[in-house]
Amino acid sequence: MAASERLAKVPVHIITGFLGSGKTTLIHSLIEQKPVDETWAILVNEFGQIGIDQAMFDARDDVVVKGLPGGCLCCQLAFVLQAALVNLLARSKPDRVIIEPSGLGHPAGLLDLLRGEAFQEVVEVRDIIATLDPRRLDDARSRTHDTFRDQLDMADAVALTMLDQSTPEQLGAAHAFVAQRWPPRKWVQEAPQGELPIGLLTQSGRAEGSDISVPANHQQLATTPSLAGSFFDFPPPPGKPQRETGTSLGYTSTGLRWHPSERFDLDSLATCLGELPREARIKGVFHTDSGWKRFNRAGGTLSVESSAWRQDSRLEVILPDTSPALDIEGQLRLLTLG
């Protein structure tokens, strides 16, 4: 009876990690290896107000993706998450759920919610996986950031990402950094091109998760979560892009949306985004003169690939508050085609 009860619970996987550490790419890799007889639900939390991550996933019948922009799951969006998860479990009846918190999100409150009365008989939280970009350890601002450290300390396992952009010395330092965490992680896996063996997910055990509380700077966040610019909104009128900004935890997000009929010059757009400050975290999907394209930049490296998204063009840029102000909207206005 106990075994059947465990089987009845839906496995929930939390994939956490700091800004630009490759969480979405890792989830893409897992989706491509998904057992054909399983339906998955992906809940993606975003720091920015516009919401971009749902546009980073191609539509499929066996994978339901829900974006929760404009806040942190551990505090501001806890109620929204609970409602969204209840709705997903009832409507989609997924065999497995993956939750991707914001890169600035603290997983402690999320773990408390999933283990609380509302879900304790419905879901089972499996091994918490943290993604780590070895290059982040060269940045004292990231290395000493409480959320960065807590994400790794709460993780049951660690996936080392961005290997093609890391030196052997940086990779060695990342292994050593993780080895210093206590208790030891269940596994540390190098994930070239964000690829993680599916067995590490499907055969994972119950999450242990260190006893870490939500820090005061998260508990005191005063920003009211906004779902403006959600994926069910109508696009803004042509020539009048929608702009949303948000600031907390030492970072500022700028989100922009354009009507789908507006097109951008691809080469000029890639150059413009590539010239933004190296510390800028950039995600976007644009209607260009070469079709719809998805842009992703972390650690100064920009990737461009085709996208099935057609609802609107949208961009999110996250910068430390110490960076100078940028007129991103003005720069991009010059790149639209008549």
TrEMBL record:
Keyword Glycoprotein attached: no
CDD domains: CobW-like (cd03112)
One Gene Ontology cellular component: cytoplasm
Record-listed E.C. numbers: 3.6.-.-
Protein known as: Zinc-binding GTPase YeiR
Pfam families: cobW
InterPro entries: CobW-like_C, CobW/HypB/UreG_nucleotide-bd, P-loop_NTPase, Zinc-reg_GTPase_activator
MF term (GO), any: hydrolase activity
Function: Zinc chaperone that directly transfers zinc cofactor to target proteins, thereby activating them. Zinc is transferred from the CXCC motif in the GTPase domain to the zinc binding site in target proteins in a process requiring GTP hydrolysis.
Sorted UniProt keywords: Hydrolase
EC category: hydrolase
Record carries keyword Hydrolase: yes
Taxonomic classification: Bacteria, Pseudomonadati, Pseudomonadota, Gammaproteobacteria, Oceanospirillales
